[in-house]
Amino acid sequence: MKKLRDIPLSLLNLAPIRHGEGTATEALLETIELARKAEEFGYHRYWIAEHHNMPAVASAATSVLVGQVASATERIKVGSGGIMLPNHAPYVVAEQFGTLASLFPGRIDLGIGRAPGTDPWTAQALRRGDAGAKDFPAQVAEVRRYLEPTTPKQRVRAIPGEGTKVPLYVLGSSTFGAALAAQEGLPFVFASHFAPTQLAAALEVYRANFRPSESLEKPQAIVGVNVIAADTDREARRIFTTLQRKFLTLIRGELQNLPPVDDIDRHWSPQEAAAVEDMLRESVVGSPGTVREGLGALLKRTGADELIVLTETWDFKDRIRSYELLAELKSA
Prior knowledge:
Strand content: 5-15%
CATH topology: TIM Barrel
Order of helices and strands: EHEHEHEHHHEHEHEHHEHEH
Helix content: 40-55%
CATH class: Alpha Beta
Oligomer: single chain
């Protein structure tokens, strides 16, 4: 059975904005500072997720932020987790990440997903329609083609981009993405940090149907997980109420990052509590010992080749401390 020390450990960040007192500038600067700390702590990669028209999230211009993070660090891999491909022309994505790969050779990842990462009105403002998600497999193939070496008769070339072979990762929360990643011989990243329902089924589909490719000989399954580590279980559970409240505001219709509370049960109905707990059931929260046990159980269930961790807290220092404790667990 795989143990935490045996696999890469990575970070996912949404550049969260604190409701009522935080600013996008603070969120972006914290995103860069967290990347520096992640490199110092020894994490493998640092990914940034694309979302639009959300007052709680500052990572809309994902490729721009990836470049800023890469320039502020030296070794850690940096990328998207992910670029929501239906929002963009595949050619532009190839140019953007080809540019990043040219500036930071060997350090740039391109994680891609088919969800809009926004609402229908904003999707329209992005000049993309519903057909984009349906064409996702073709869009993936198109991006991949632009990043390959050019062919003699190729009239449209991504410059920079061609020949960079930026590593592609398919993101998903269902068996659809798993099947596509398997067919194309690409790594698969499952978003169990917010949609864990089909985790086991998706990994089974991916591994059973994987076809080796030039870029990947065997399946590479990466699992996303929320982790809150603190010095005590009680402290970690209190810090975790910020993420619970965030998901509560999501189901109520307006995503917000709110401060932690002592008694979360005073803030939601039993039905709301059940809905939030269902979305967050793969979260691992507690002291270092509790987190070690929880992540060990997750690895046993999934056989993940890598974990990508999302830690959202109200206080930035708590986020840094959580990642520090987790890194210490891995090296122990």
